[in-house]
């Protein structure tokens, strides 16, 4: 049975047109699209696609030089890491966090911008399912074309829940959705703070906004803008670090290399219209100043949250390490 979200393409024996990932004995990956009569060549022999068509997912196949390959259908996480890219993609570890922490649920109406290469869109589409809606906005037509092609390849056709509009979110969103008609908004773009007015109008009360930003300066700016807007709850921010493990005999340890940085996530929720954000229990310290407002003299240890030792404490430590309060 053909399913509109491509579930039928993810199970059963390999068929013509399936994308298959081959892993060689050294762990190198090669992705092929199964085509009757075609051959997969390397500098060490070749194998026919026909040898794989009809075999179960997870089979091995041996080429003419006796090299064995493991054949598996790529998972979504494999797919997004190997598919053609225009813009940088949201990595699977962050896409997983976004789906969970923005509470993307089956049947939800989700707005996304920008689309880039469509990696995150695919995770959102999977989470909303065929009865949800993902309305994606992308400024660049060329990127939107790449994203559409990537998703079409992955799902085996146009996902029924997806629409991609070319245009700037700030201009395009108000005409595309009813006020309060959107459950979740996901922003992966340079300047998400520019979109807060239209996002606030579109989100249903209690709806979630999540932003993925690459730098601490963007994080600071968007968090301050969320606070200043007055229609959102106190923002929450975090990052996730995933460290792979090497598993070989007794050498079971963290891998030496990892992606040390991808981006930061920050979420907030839409307050009911007319509700003002409740006062924070922990008030910002005296001298609190936003990075926007900060002048030269504002970059003090206190304002950046450093614990400043008293002069008395420093004198005491100095005495204890030098034996005198004035060693010079
Ligand atoms: C890093 S990419 C998004 C990658 C995407 N999330 C993925 O996983 O493949 C950021 C995209 O946002 C688009 N963009 C930036 N500001 C925008 C705006 N205001 N409205 C629509 N698209 C925007 C850019 O053109 C760019 O393609």
TrEMBL record:
Location of the region described as Disordered in the Swiss-Prot/TrEMBL record: 1-21, 271-328
Presence of keyword Transferase: yes
UniProt superkingdom: Bacteria
Signal peptide, first to last residue: none
Binding positions (S-adenosyl-L-methionine): 117-120, 138, 168, 188
EC assignment: 2.1.1.220
Family in the record: Belongs to the class I-like SAM-binding methyltransferase superfamily. TRM61 family.
Protein name in UniProt: tRNA (adenine(58)-N(1))-methyltransferase TrmI
Taxon lineage: Bacteria, Bacillati, Actinomycetota, Actinomycetes, Micrococcales
């Amino acid at each position: 049975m053909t399913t509109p979200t491509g579930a039928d393409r993810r199970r059963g024996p390999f068929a013509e047109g399936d994308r298959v990932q081959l892993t060689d004995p050294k762990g190198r990956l090669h992705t092929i699209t199964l085509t009757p009569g075609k051959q997969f060549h390397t500098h060490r022999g070749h194998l026919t696609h026909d040898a794989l068509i009809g075999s179960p997912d997870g089979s091995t196949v041996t080429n003419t030089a006796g090299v064995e390959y493991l054949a598996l259908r790529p998972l979504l996480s494999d797919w997004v890491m190997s598919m053609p890219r225009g813009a940088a993609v949201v990595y699977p570890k962050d896409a997983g966090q976004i789906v969970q922490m923005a509470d993307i649920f089956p049947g939800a109406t989700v707005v996304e911008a920008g689309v880039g290469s469509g990696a995150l869109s695919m995770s959102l589409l999977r989470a909303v399912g065929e009865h949800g809606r993902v309305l994606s906005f992308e400024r660049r037509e060329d990127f939107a074309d790449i994203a559409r092609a990537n998703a079409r390849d992955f799902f085996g056709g146009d996902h029924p829940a997806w629409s991609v509009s070319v245009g700037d979110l700030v201009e395009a969103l108000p005409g595309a959705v009813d006020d309060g008609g959107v459950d979740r908004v996901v922003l992966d773009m340079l300047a998400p703070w520019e979109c807060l007015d239209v996002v606030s109008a579109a989100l249903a009360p209690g709806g979630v906004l999540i932003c993925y930003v690459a730098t601490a300066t963007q994080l600071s700016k968007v968090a301050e803008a969320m606070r200043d807007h007055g229609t959102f709850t106190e923002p929450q921010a975090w990052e996730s670090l995933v460290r792979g493990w090497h598993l070989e005999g007794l050498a079971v340890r963290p891998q030496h290399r990892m992606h040390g940085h991808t981006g930061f996530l920050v979420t907030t929720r839409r307050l009911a219209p007319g509700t003002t954000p409740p006062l924070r229990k922990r008030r910002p310290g005296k001298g609190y100043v936003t990075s926007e407002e900060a002048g030269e003299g504002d970059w003090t240890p206190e304002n950046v949250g450093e614990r400043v030792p008293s002069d008395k404490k420093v004198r005491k430590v100095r005495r204890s390490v030098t034996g005198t309060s004035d060693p010079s």
